Amino acid sequence: MEVKDNVRDMIEQYRIYIEEKEKFIDRTFSTNKFFLVFCTALFTLIFFSTEHTTSSYGLTLDILLALIGIITCLLWLNNVNVYDVIISIKLKKVIDKLEEVLPLQPHLLEKKEFEEYRKTKGKFNLMKLSYTGSQKTMIIGMLAAFVMITILNVAPKYFNYIMQTILTN
């Protein structure tokens, strides 16, 4: 009777841990949606901004929004990296260890099936692109766009300033 209770307790702990992992992944998606919407809003504001008043520091609205976008993308990239580490620890370390004592190991079985699928579908299969990898590519693309917007807005002003300085001397 005690063995059955022990197995039942282990299964219950496993179930609770899997539910917590799923909640964590849901929070990850919510966080990513926030960053995506925020960056899209910044791009929209930059695109539609017509006011080019310069602040006392020489910043226009475009440059200010692009700088906010750069900082946001860097924070987002850091967030994705942290979530990636936490999820890999939860999956590879904890769940696999819990499954070692269970009669059936669904996570390990699922992992083996994905690996088998990848092997049979060839080298250039889209399944090989991880969600995190494609997400990081998108974030780096947005970051590059914000950097380009900043450079394209700042470079002409400083170029003109340098040329005026050279010509007046």
Mean pLDDT: 79
Q: Outline, from the CA principal axes? A: elongated
The rounded Rg comes to: 25 Å
Q: What assembly state would you assign to the polypeptide chains in this entry?
A: single chain
Strand content: under 5%
Low-pLDDT stretches = none
| Main sheet specs | none
Structural class: mainly alpha
Query: Helix count, per DSSP?
Result: 4
Number of domains: 1
Q: Total number of β-strand segments? A: 0
Order of helices and strands: HHHH
Task: Please report the distance between the alpha carbons of the first and last residues.
Answer: 95 Å
Account of the protein in words:
With 169 residues, this protein is mainly alpha-helical. The chain has one domain. It is built from four helices and no strands. The chain has helices at residues 2-48, 61-99, 106-120, 131-168. It starts with a helix and ends with a helix. The model has no long low-confidence stretch (mean pLDDT 79).
Give the helix/strand layout:
Layout: H1 2-48, H2 61-99, H3 106-120, H4 131-168
Summarize the structure.
82% of the residues lie in helices and 0% in strands. It contains 4 helices and no strands.
